[in-house]
Amino acid sequence: MYCPNCGKEVEDGALYCGECGAKIGGQPKKPQQTGTQQTRTQTQSKKGPGRPPVSKSAQNKKTGDSFSPKAKKIIIAQVIVLAALIAAFVYLGTRNSKPESAASQFVKNYNDRNWSKVYDAYHFEEDTFINRDAFEATMDQSDAETLSSPVGGYLNNGEYIYRIRKGSGYITISVARSLEKSFFFFNKYEVTGVSDSGVAVQSVTVPNISGVTLKIDGITAKNTSDDDDAVSYNVRLFKGTHKATFSGADGMFTENTYTFDTSGNSLVSQIEYSDSAKEEAAKALEGYLPDITENRIKGRDKSNLSDCFVSEQRAQLYGETLCTGSYSTGSDTKDLGDVAVSRCAAVDSASSSYSAASGIPVSVSATRTYQYPLSTGNYFTGTCIVRGTAYMVKKDGKWVINTASYY
């Protein structure tokens, strides 16, 4: 049976409702209902007699709470995330809007060897070997010292100047406000200049060898001098360690790859010609002696010796340098003997200014007899003496004389 007060089902014969406590005993059983009436009656009884159904929203309003516990948790989590994003946005924006942040970032990039990010701050005048790629290669091969944290930050002409310890010395960087904004409205600062003697540009002498390609840090070197026949020329390189590679040298040097430093261990001081190259150079010079001595004895123009020298100009300068002892010369001399060579071999240069760019020094001693006319109409025997050192270089695959000296 059911409680007449709250509609709760109670046991038959119960005197009081276990739900609401209303007195029940003595009331007759409710007649049994069938079908739809029974279902409707049970539904209405559960909600209370004579009460219309109550929705969840109405119940929430009645209790003064418009959100379920699950919805509350979701909203709270979203609020926390939004607050964290706003805090991070403000923190990053204000942190990067200070000049010291730019100085600290420069130090970090430098110490992390992120050379591409510090390159622009140096404002180099670019050239064949002065560019971003060459800078990265040089710094990666060099022993870069670690920078300390920036100090100072005093204002000078609109820029903040920071002093940074580097090894036993210091560098300074300038920081100024950028025209750009960080996060649309925060101020942004950037490094506008660096004063660092350890990162600079130096002029370095490299050999100019015809037919041989020189690459420095993978970049092809080209003769930058006005003299096409110059045995060496200067290039601008970043201060530090570099790698030089020769191709097309065909066994000319003992090695084709060299590591050199702009401050001391230069490239030309390291290059050493191979034994085979020295033999080839000495043999070539010996082959030129007949033409050189005949030109001296006959008194011909030095342009005839252009094939023996690196250029016609060098032939004019050094064509007779190795020869002496000719008492009388001219076109009327005759009966030239064979060149008698007593010495023709590569030697170590006695000159302190010598470098591989000058060529292979070949010491030579030889003589050649001839007949020259006397005033009486008779002929007398003269001797052309060859004695000195010729510096041999390779041009277009052929060993020729660069310079020569008599001793």
From TrEMBL:
Domain of life: Bacteria
Record has Zinc as a keyword: no
Transmembrane spans: 74-92
Pfam families linked to this entry: Zn_Ribbon_1
Residues in Zinc-ribbon domain copies: 2-24
Biased composition (Low complexity): 25-47
Region described as Disordered: spans on this chain: 25-66
Key words of the record: Membrane, Transmembrane, Transmembrane helix
InterPro entries registered for this protein in UniProt: Zinc_ribbon_dom (IPR026870)
Stated name of the protein: Zinc-ribbon domain-containing protein
Organism (species): Candidatus Anaerostipes avistercoris
